[in-house]
Design a protein that fits this description.
Four Helix Bundle (Hemerythrin (Met), subunit A); single chain
Length: 212
């Protein structure tokens, strides 16, 4: 479906951000969280139909948007955002979409309003939502690589989580700020690893389904 969507640029990112700033449910995701969530959706080991994630994102109680017009404006932008993320994955070039790049300095990305922090929250929400798709028996190397990718991509979701990850996964004598800087720089590689692992798992599940 990626060919159906036009390029999603910074202007559209800011338009989508402005629309979701007017949402009724204040706890609902904003643009940067949506971008992280949709990466987890687009990179999943099995296809997630747009109807599934659109229902999750737009159907809310109270409704996400009280004005039908706002929902009608948001829908094509959501599809375009998903499309540009999906195209990057299909082209073996997964990347953060517009306005989600890390801020200079590792710790700056742990601020509550930092784009990468918000992206990370959305990614973890998406991965958790789709966790049943990842529940398959794979080898230890696969599990370790997936764990490392999730740590890198989810590290900035909250300072408390970053502190937990630092205690468990930080290198000896590595300060939290140094780990944050290292993982911010490692985001592109972590995106690629997550996609690669999803494909590996998807292929393995496909082979199992084909067994007689």
């Amino acid at each position: 479906m990626s060919g159906e969507h036009h390029v999603f640029d910074l202007a559209e990112a800011r338009r989508l951000q402005a629309l979701f700033a007017r949402r009724t449910a204040r706890e609902a995701m904003g643009y940067h969280e949506l971008a992280g969530f949709l990466f987890a959706v687009a990179a999943a080991p099995a296809t997630v139909q747009p109807s599934e994630w659109l229902d999750l994102l737009l159907e809310d109680d109270p409704p996400l948007f009280t004005e039908t017009k706002l929902c009608e404006e948001a829908l094509p932008l959501l599809l375009a955002l998903h499309g540009v993320i999906e195209r990057g994955i299909d082209d073996d070039a997964p990347a953060l979409p517009p306005d989600c790049a890390p801020r200079p300095g590792g710790r700056a990305n742990l601020a509550a309003d930092a784009p990468l922090s918000l992206w990370s929250r959305g990614f973890l929400d998406g991965h958790d939502w789709l966790s049943p798709l990842w529940e398959a028996e794979m080898d230890e190397a696969f599990d370790a690589a997936l764990e490392a990718a999730i740590v890198a991509l989810g590290f900035f979701a909250a300072p408390g989580l970053a502190a937990d990850f630092h205690r468990e996964y930080g290198a000896p004598d590595e300060a939290l700020e140094d780990m944050a800087a290292r993982l911010a720089a490692a985001v592109p590689a972590a995106l690629a690893t997550y996609v690669e692992l999803a494909r590996e798992l998807g292929d393995a599940l496909g082979e199992e389904d084909g067994e007689v």
